[in-house]
TrEMBL record:
The name this protein goes by in its record: Amino acid ABC transporter substrate-binding protein
Keyword RNA-binding in record: no
SUPFAM superfamilies assigned: Periplasmic binding protein-like II
Species this chain originates from: Alteromonas sediminis
Record-annotated Solute-binding protein family 3/N-terminal domain positions: 39-254
Keyword Signal among UniProt keywords: yes
Pfam families in UniProt: SBP_bac_3
Entry keywords, A to Z: Signal
Signal peptide: 1-25
Amino acid sequence: MVRQELCRYFIAFTILVVGCNQALAQSNEPPIEFYSELVAPYYWLDKNKKPQGAMVDLAMALIDTIGREASLSHLPWARAVVEAKKRPNIVLLTALRTPSREHELQWLGKVGQTDAYLIGLKERQYPPLKNLEQAKSLRIATIRGYGSAAYLLDNGFVEGENLELLVGIDQLWSMLYRERVDAVLMNMSTSPFEIIEAELDPNLIKPLLHIDELTIDLEMATGNATSQATVQQIQTALKHLKDKGVFSDIMKRWRL
């Protein structure tokens, strides 16, 4: 009887110690920092400068599920990618999973898909385009730090000649509408939201060339400096939100 009581006390003490150690380890982990860029309908600022969008809702749901100290902010995407590669616990909410990035980041789960096109203006005449090589006679713009930027550079486009790499989404669409560039390489499915946010008319664009290689998954990602414990924690939380239907509800709310 005494031995049984001692065993119970020992087991209870062990559980308490393990639980305390786990809590202490978690409290010593740096806070998770979720980064997005300013791109509707994923993340933008309303008239009161309050973040809105699908990734805002998803990040908040993840923070509630994980139960750890975390924050959400926006950065120019090139800088966000650099930060994620350099520091632990930086989570990119929408990263294009290209072959060149496969081993540069740890992938946490799919959050969308791109439908990549070269996009031009309806009122302009363009030469027929059957492949990307034929587009090298055009001046193309995309966002610095995007997978599309690396893709164009890898395929022989030269920045400052037939390629413009910009920081802001609004600036990119303004450049196209003012005919400072001939076309842009962007996600066709979200382009209307971006154009409206830039206070332009989305009915004035047309697709020029579908880019099959960039019609791939958008995933949540973090740098290789992030611990496996944190990676698994976020992966598990994201899967939980998908299994419970929370993720799909968020996407439907924002028409994604």
